[in-house]
Specification:
This protein is mainly α and about 160 residues long. It has helices at about 1-30, 35-40, 45-60, 65-90, 110-115, 135-155, 155-160; strands at about 130, 135.
C-alpha cells in the first residue's frame, strides 16, 4: 500500500515539476518576460527532480533514498527562492549572481560593449505576477509544501512498510 502512496506522490511531484518548467519557459518565450539569473537558478531543482524520478522508474532506486534526495532538492529550491524573495522585497542586497552574464561566449571587445549596453534584468524587478504573487513567492510555497509532504512520508516510511 505504501508503494502505491509513494508512487502517487512521485507522480504528483513530477507533474508539478513539469508544469513549473513548462510555465517558466512559456512566460519567458511566449509572453516575453525575461528572467533574472536567480529565476533561472530556481528552475534547476525542478529539472533535477524530474531526472531523479525518471531514474527511479528506470532503475528502481530505493524509495527512501529517493525521498531524501528530493527533500534536499526542494530545500535548496526553498532556500534560493527565499533568498530571491528577500532581494525582491529589499530585505537583502543583490549579489553578484544577479548581475553576472555568461561571458564565455564573448569573443571580441565589440561583443563585450554590446553586452554591457544590453539591459540586464535585476533580481529585484518582478516582471510577472499570478494573482498578485511573484513566481518566486509561488516557488517558495510549492517547495515548502513538497518538503513537508516528503518529510512526513520519510518519517512514517517504516510504519507503512509492512
Amino acid at each position: 500500500m505504501l508503494n502505491y502512496k509513494i508512487e502517487t506522490f512521485l507522480k504528483i511531484i513530477i507533474i508539478i515539476s513539469l508544469s513549473a518548467l513548462i510555465s517558466a519557459y512559456f512566460i519567458e518565450y511566449v509572453l516575453g518576460h525575461q528572467p533574472c539569473n536567480l529565476c533561472l537558478i530556481e528552475r534547476i531543482p525542478y529539472g533535477l527532480c524530474i531526472i531523479l524520478i525518471v531514474l527511479n522508474y528506470m532503475f528502481k532506486i530505493d524509495n527512501k533514498f529517493l525521498i531524501i534526495l528530493l527533500i534536499l532538492t526542494f530545500i535548496f529550491s526553498f532556500m534560493i527562492s527565499a533568498y530571491h524573495f528577500g532581494i525582491e522585497k529589499g530585505f537583502l542586497e543583490e549579489s553578484a549572481i544577479c548581475v553576472v552574464k555568461n561571458t564565455t561566449e564573448i569573443i571580441s571587445k565589440e561583443e563585450l560593449l554590446k553586452e554591457l549596453q544590453a539591459k540586464t534584468i535585476s533580481c529585484k524587478d518582478v516582471t510577472f505576477r499570478i494573482f498578485g504573487f511573484s513566481l518566486t513567492t509561488i516557488n517558495i510555497i510549492i517547495s515548502l509544501i513538497i518538503v513537508i509532504l516528503l518529510s512526513k512520508i520519510f518519517i512514517n516510511y517504516e510504519q507503512f512498510k509492512k
